[in-house]
Design goal:
single chain; 270 residues; alpha/beta; Rossmann fold; ProC C-terminal domain-like fold; eight-stranded mixed β-sheet
């Protein structure tokens, strides 16, 4: 399935790259229907070269012709960007915000138009069509427009419609989560090198282990807890490692880390 709407991405960071790359990989949107803009022009030129999409001559012109506008800027830049394009946004335009900690009400109050606002919390695995995206709609968005946003993000991974009050937790879980996995994979690789493996072999086995475990979690009927216990033989090597994790209170470390991420998301929304 494809859509013919014109998409305008304001902000060309990692999330925008993931969404654009995923949409094009899925052949869901044509490159000729995507326009991007960023304060750092080098980023937009890189996007143009990498994806074959267009670069906006001005935000105003791009906003005036866009059917769907993606806001992927830093939270502190949102108000400034709205001020630049508010008079050029069409009434029927759908605004999709992936800005962390920015509520639909905040966007609506700054646009000061009865325009459809969809808030999305995707993550970077969208680039390889394995993303996880939470969606909610603002006051003026219809169920049909929300369904269109869901269809759009479904082309790059799994998508769920959730109440907006869940978004700070989703930010801490799936929004920031890939970085936790990358970090743990890096730590496993580094440990394997210290224990005698070459860098290449350590990376190969660490990455494949993370990838394989993730796939098992997705396709297996058992829970993560059961799968973990299935690997852990009594008095075996895995149990020795897990017991050390438990002795260091790893579960509390993970909880506190995610709690900090959630708190930061709440702070950004104020």
């Amino acid at each position: 399935m494809k859509i013919d709407e014109k998409l305008f991405f304001i902000g060309s960071g990692n999330i925008a790259q993931s969404i654009i790359g995923g949409l094009l990989e899925a052949k869901f949107v044509k490159a000729e229907n995507i326009i991007c803009d960023d304060i750092v022009k080098e980023k937009t030129l890189n996007f143009q070269q990498k994806f074959g999409i267009s670069v906006a001559d001005t935000k105003c012109n791009a906003a005036a012709t866009a059917d769907i506008i993606f806001f992927s800027v830093k939270p502190q830049d949102v108000v400034k960007v709205f001020g630049e394009i508010v008079n050029y946004i069409k009434k029927e335009t759908i605004i999709i915000s992936v800005v962390a900690g920015t509520t639909t009400k905040f966007i609506e109050d700054n646009i000061k138009k009865d325009v459809a606002v969809i808030r999305a919390m995707p993550n970077t695995p969208s680039l390889v069509r394995l993303g996880a995206t939470a969606l909610c709609k603002g006051r003026f968005a219809s169920d049909e427009q929300l369904s269109k946003a869901k269809l759009l993000f479904s082309s790059v991974g799994k998508t769920e419609i959730l109440p907006e009050e869940s978004f700070d937790v989703i930010t801490a879980l799936s929004g920031s989560g890939p970085a936790y996995i990358f970090y743990f994979c890096e730590l496993m690789q580094n440990a394997a090198e210290k224990l005698g493996l070459s860098k290449e072999i350590a990376k190969t086995f660490a990455v494949q282990t993370v990838y394989g475990a993730g796939k098992m979690l997705d396709v297996a009927k058992e829970s993560a807890e059961v799968l973990q216990k299935n690997v852990k033989s009594p008095n075996g090597t895995t149990e020795a490692a897990v017991k050390y994790f438990e002795s260091q209170n790893l579960s509390n470390i993970v909880y506190k880390a995610m709690e900090n991420a959630m708190k930061r998301s709440k702070e950004l929304s104020k």
